[in-house]
Amino acid sequence: MAMAGFDAYTLRGYSCKMKAKTQTACRSRLNRIEGQVRGINRMIEDNRYCIDVLTQIQAVRAALRAAGARQDSERDLGQ
């Protein structure tokens, strides 16, 4: 059950919204990651070597971790 003013998926204590500059940077980063994922899909369709596909999957995972870490640090710093 969502509280008034909170999205259903927002945990309690996380009531602040992203600033416009942070949101723009986050969307840009996620768009690049989306492009990487689409590239992996093409690699699979083209029957590329497994190690190449796995390398790209690791790169996407690292990019997602970095995006999450940046969000955490900006939330903690109140930026």
Short summary:
The protein is mainly α. The protein contains 2 helices and no strands.
Task: Explain what the structure shows.
By secondary structure, the protein is mainly alpha-helical. Helix content is 68%, strand content 0%. It is built from two helices and no strands. The protein has helices spanning 20-45, 50-77. The radius of gyration is 17 Å and the shape is elongated. The model has no long low-confidence stretch (mean pLDDT 83).
N/C terminus separation: 29 Å
Structural class comes to mainly alpha
The value of Rg in angstroms is 17 Å
In total, the number of strands is 0
SSE order and pairing:
Elements: H1 20-45, H2 50-77
Helix pairs in contact: 1-2
Keywords for this entry:
mainly alpha; 0% strand; 79 residues; single chain; elongated
